[in-house]
Task: structure prediction
Amino acid sequence: MAAIQMIQPVQKGRSSPDFISGWGMGSLAFLLLLIFLVGPFFSGIWYSFTNQRLISANPTEVVGLRNYTRLLRLGILPLDPLLDESTGEFQRDEAGNLVFPRSRAFTRDEQNYPQYAGLTEWFNIDRGSQRYVVLAGDPLFMRSLVNNFFFALVVIPLQTGLGLLLALLVNQKLRGETFFRTMYFAPVVTSLVVVSIVWRFLYDVNNGLVNEMVRSVTFGAVQPINWLGDPGIAMWAIIIMSIWQGAGFQMMLFVAGLQQIAEELYEAAGIDGANSWQKFLYITLPGLRNVMVFIFLTITIAAFQLFDQVLVMTNGGPDDATTTSVFHMYRAGFREQDIAYASTIAVVFFLIIVTVNLIQRYAIRERSARS
Amino acid sequence: MTVMQASPSITKSGTKRLQQALRMALRYVPLLILIFFFTFPLVFMIVSAFKVSNQQIFSDLRSLRAFLPVGDLTLENFRFVFENSNFPRYLLNSVFISGITIILALAVNSMAAYALSRLRWRGQRLILSIIIATLIIPGQATIMPLLLLVATLPSVSFADGVSLTRGWLDSYHVQFLPFIAGAFSIFLFYQFFQEIPKDLDEAALVDGATRFQIFYRIIVPISGPVFASVSILTFIASWNAFLWPIMTVQSDELRPVMVGLLFFFQRNVQWGQVMAYTTMITIPVLAFFFAFQSAFVKSIATTGIKG
Result:
């Protein structure tokens, strides 16, 4: 980061002129950061290799990679359909579908199938007359990760698009620009707990404002939607609310980016006969590149931090459709008091954030190398 | 509008002006529609807090009345929240916790940033690199080991005589002490202090001022905007805190407003009362934000661009 290079190296001879005042004024903050940030960060990594619990009578033991295998292990179990003993043909149920043995018969039979021990069924795929059961050490965590990624994939384009649209609209040098900007930003500063409770009411099936609005816009053609009770829709409900809540933040970042683009570029393009669409495509968008990369990063991090909405609106349900990694961590660490396992989730969570961050660094570097 | 068919003599300048006005209106229409989109839940929340019953709120949903203060309006919901719940206590707790967090965070982080940006001392570059490196650690990645840490830290108890007890759980200080020092706040102060010319310090040094006097008398008075940004960021984070107090605070009398809200909400289906509660805890944040709006926007802008 450029900020570090701005300090000149301490010269020899008068090496540390402000030693006492420097440490004196800084040490309180450094100490607090050490105790409450750096310390827990490293002890979290350590706990992930132990069986540490929040409250326990037994001493803590090192368990190696056990937490990681429980969290991340995957396996595939191929199943053949059951045969009808008398005819030698495949058994079929009343609907005519093939009947397969239960995966539990294998995962709980440690003597004959040690490779499946400790795994549970996550989902299965049928191909021809074979069924492949995908097993996971912790299917609920896998489900959480998938939900996090799904949330990120939907929210990134929608919120970036909406944020850019808002920024372009408020950046027209119109009267009242500040007023509009402030209004769009208001949901960002509002507590997620408050917002979630209000939206839970808005999403109500029978008395919800959202369904009323859908009904009046479509003149009653659309049946009331069970926003938070339908496993296929609940995540979408959280996504819509989250986009509404956070778009103002992306708008602010875009406005800042827009104001960095030199006015002369637009003037020069105007002289060359470019229309406004071309100006947007060839000046505005490339000029916003760094902001976009930053927004991609912040939304991804926010997607993996998804928690408050889930706890207040759905409690992870229905059918675990809205469970997330932080929610899973909360369940493990606080409700089950398994600090070691929760720390393992935190380490994986941190590694994902670092990966996204490295991608961001790479994207920015690539550009500065080219220009 | 029928005014358009006025006498032909004024049509030329008249239509031109009208066209201009129309174009202006067209630019404002999407902005106004979006205002509705972004504020309708909040307007609905505030308006519903004044409505008498669930029945009235539900029947108003079928029209724009949902967003208008019409029908039987009352302050009864607010009175109920104040008198029949622990809300006043929660509010006091949150004001105290947020207030003390802001004051200590401003003092501690600004001094550290001053030492890092304008003084020369051994270890400075190392500390600065560590602080910048910690910016990447998301709060939730350390929250579980932090929970274990505060559960085991020693604490002084004055219950009967002075004695040492184990664990910070269920206290006020567990709600603010871990969140005073912040890498991001130090970073914001640092960036701001870097921009102030160094000559100011040199001149004061010649006059015999100490480093702390320079900080206190010269740097702090001209750094209003960054103090405002850090205040608002700290205030919002601490006022809206949820996951942490849920895990560390069990006693009802120590709960902050957000956790109190969850318990109030779970016991109560009178929507008017729930909305009165949410309205009262949202207004301070919005007011704080409107008051410091410009400083806040500026700080977001710098963080976004420098990434």
